[in-house]
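Quick check before the chapter quiz. The format below is the same one you will see on the exam, so make sure you can read both the input and the output lines.
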Amino acid sequence: MNEAAVRFPETTSVTLTVHHLCGGLAGKQQVIRHLPVVIGRSHRCEVRLAPDDTAASGRHARLSFDGTAIWLEDLESTNGTRLNGNDVTRASLTSGDEIELGCGGPRLRITFDWPAAQWIGNAQSETYVLGTCEFPLPSPWRFPVYGLGLLLLLLPLWLGSLVAAVLLMPLGILALLLAWSMARINLTITPSHIEYQGIWQQVTLPWSEVTHLHARLRAQGRATYTIVGKTRRIHFRPPNDASGIELAQLIVRRTGRQWETRATR
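Here is the expected output.
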């Protein structure tokens, strides 16, 4: 079995819009549909600045996408790169972030339409944009249990037996209630912790206690994720791959840890 950090496909559709706020091209916009791109005054840059934007270098910074986040990277520019007023060498972007290329140089606002990417960013922006969200996690057993409940309710009618009705119908009602509760499994994400509300248990795990992230990737079927804490752990299987990727991305940003993966058949 191979273990590595989770990598999500780079072919995910991401469209960026670069808004020139200050500089020789102030008021202009440019739509970017393919990453990576280089920002600078050089004519070879995909996001080209005005020749008189002398605070910016010829090849000043790069925007890239690794399948998990959109990244801003300074390319050893002469005057440095700022993100929302802070000097950075490499940082992930949130839609609406402002980039300054050199002190007093041209400023750009970056917006994008990839919903999951808007969850990526520093802790402050995550708290503001995301707050608390809840993901339903349907149990794979709910339909078999629901079917069993219906069978136990209908079997006495088919047999025409009062004794069978007395014995089996309460069990059928119990099975239906159990199946209903299985459809209400939730994973709640907050800025401070993650909470799993299952059929028989409820686990609250503060982000500060998370020690490992494990993902078991199956050739067929959904992946299984495990969040390991100092004394507790949470297992979950998202209803589909898309929601699984969103959850995995968000948990990585909250914990600062990478998923260790195991591929199984």
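If your answer matched, good. Residues 141-182 form one domain.
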